[in-house]
Design brief:
This protein is α/β, with parallel strands linked by helices and about 475 residues long. The chain is about 30% helix and about 15% strand. The protein has 17 helices and 16 strands. The structure holds flavin-adenine dinucleotide and iron/sulfur cluster. The site of flavin-adenine dinucleotide (FAD) has 39 residues, from helix 10, helix 13, helix 14 and helix 17.
Length: about 475
């Protein structure tokens, strides 16, 4: 029954879509949530208090019109809801699936503490998926095409956010990516149990029909040069992400059986999707004792991929406590349900092995000390607390650093000391534009500008950079 009650937030509890039981989902690389039924989405949306000054909107990096589209859902008006949600977000069905809502929109919901936040992410996903199923497509009939074209390097969320705004303003985006599919880390990083790959191929079709051109399997700097792009296009947007793996800097990291997180996850995606060029590329931990080092989204994805590959056991060791873990709480809970064991306050000091092959990870216990300059509490070592965790495979998920291309210097693209690209995020100077680099014709956004972060912040920067490009081109 569809409910319509002013006190719905009390009478109807927070309830997300059904989750597939852990025993079943452990066996498959498929999303773990069932789709929302229409009445459930509507009843959950109706819990929204329509706060006069909605904190959820402020906390959402793209400032979605959340209460407005929730209301449209309660009215069964999916077509208006999807139009409204696309005014602020280029990939709402993706954000609905992978945003850490507990830290963003839902964390800021007025109902969060006492009654349970509105299930904003699930409704956002529901709106787009339902609209697509009903045949919705972005309306491009009023677009006035210009003769301008922009090259975009990288088909990740930053590049796609940029392409979306440009094409809707009549500027032709041509997106270059070295991968065989669009999405960046959405396809070659985030596993299918969080985001099925059909979501991105559906978006590829939608963007293509809107007028975005994709040149896949094309690496800039190898298959095509930056100079060619600078000569042929009116502007260039860089959305190339961050791909230097952080190391622990302790002994034993180069033993056999120690893998960086991303190659492990990518080899699994390639194996599942049939993109594998050579079967030897596939890293399998079937039947092995796995230790995952780290506490972010990437570590959680390694944990849950290992479980699905049939690891004998999966232990995730993290140097801070659970409260201070950077990963989404929802994903930690999902990992736990699927059989991952967490060891908090453990800092790896050495990977140990025999005959060149890993046999374990030596860790020390830590306790939380005083907050550091960023307000995060530092982990201090407890003397005499060393122990060795048995391991046949160790997955290192310590995050990513920028990976600036060697050709940036040739084009006068300046970097910060840590390798991030310098841009004018909020231009204060006359004649400068949003997300413009030190080369006036080149713009940049996403992880390569802000350091590795989130899908939604990359989308946001791509969209803002597109506004900067439109101003620069005087469109
Ligand atoms: P990317 O997504 O990295 O895209 C960059 C693209 O540029 C890639 O496709 C790359 O192939 C291409 N490229 C680079 N150089 C070239 C070149 N020279 N020529 C052609 N193409 C090039 N965020 C969340 O919000 N929620 C999550 O649950 C989450 N989980 C994550 C899990 C993992 C395992 C990882 C690694 C990250 C996760 N993130 C998550 C972070 C999120 O994926 C990134 O912040 C986001 O994808 C960054 O977007 P981007 O467009 O800046 O870069
Ligand atoms: Fe919440 Fe992310 Fe959607 Fe914003 S984009 S409303 S933060 S799920």
């Amino acid at each position: 029954e569809r409910l319509n009650n002013d006190f719905q937030f009390i009478e109807v509890g927070r309830q997300g879509p059904e989750k597939i039981p852990a025993g079943v989902r452990k066996q498959q690389f498929a999303e773990i949530y069932e789709p929302f039924q229409n009445k459930d989405a509507s009843n959950q949306a109706h819990r929204c208090l329509e706060c006069g000054n909605p904190y959820c909107e402020w906390k959402c990096p793209v400032h979605n019109f959340i209460p407005n589209w929730l209301k449209l859902v309660t009215e069964g008006n999916i077509m208006e809801a999807v139009e409204l949600s696309h005014q602020t977000n280029s990939l709402p069905e993706v954000c609905g699936r992978v945003c850490p809502q507990d830290r963003l929109c839902e964390g800021a919901c007025t109902l969060n503490d006492e009654f349970g936040a509105v299930t904003i992410g699930s409704v956002e996903k529901y709106i787009t998926d339902t609209a697509f199923a009903m045949g919705w497509k972005p309306d491009m009939s009023k677009v006035e095409w210009t003769d301008r074209k922009v090259a975009i390097i990288g088909a990740g969320p930053a590049g796609l956010g940029c392409a979306d705004i440009l094409v809707r303003n009549g500027v032709k985006p041509v997106v270059f990516d070295r991968n065989p599919e669009i999405g960046g880390l959405l396809t070659f990083g985030i596993p299918e149990f969080k985001l099925e790959k059909s979501v991105m191929s559906r978006r590829r079709d939608v963007f293509t029909e809107m007028g975005v051109e994709f040149r896949l399997n094309t690496e800039v700097g190898k298959d095509v040069t930056m100079q060619q792009l600078m000569d042929e296009y009116d502007a260039v947007f860089l959305g190339m992400g961050t791909y230097t793996y952080m190391k622990g800097g302790f002994p034993g990291e180069d033993l056999d059986g120690v893998y960086d997180a991303l190659p492990f996850l990518i080899s699994n995606v390639n194996h599942c999707l049939g993109f594998e060029k050579d079967p030897a590329e596939y890293i399998s931990v079937k039947g092995q004792k796995v230790v995952v080092l780290g506490g972010g989204d990437t570590a959680m994805d390694c944990n849950r991929t290992s479980i699905r590959q049939g690891a004998e056991s999966v232990v995730c060791a993290y140097r801070r406590d659970e409260e201070n873990m950077p990963g989404s709480k929802r994903e930690v809970e999902n990992a736990r349900e699927e059989g991952v064991q967490f060891l908090f306050n453990r800092q790896p000091v050495e990977v140990v092995g025999e005959n060149g092959k890993v046999t374990g990870v030596k860790v020390v216990a830590t306790r939380m000390g005083e907050p550091d300059e960023n307000g995060r509490r530092r982990a201090e070592v407890v003397p005499g607390s060393e122990e060795v965790l048995d391991a046949d495979a160790v997955l290192v998920a310590f995050g990513f650093r920028p990976s600036p291309a060697p050709w940036f210097a040739d084009f006068g693209i300046d970097l910060h000391d840590d390798g991030r690209i310098k841009t004018d995020a909020q231009p204060q100077t006359m004649g400068r534009f949003a997300f413009q680099t030190s080369n006036a014709k080149v713009f940049a956004g996403g992880d390569m500008v802000r350091g590795s972060d989130l899908v939604v912040t990359a989308i946001d920067e791509g969209r803002k950079a597109a506004e900067g490009i439109l101003d620069f081109l005087e469109v």
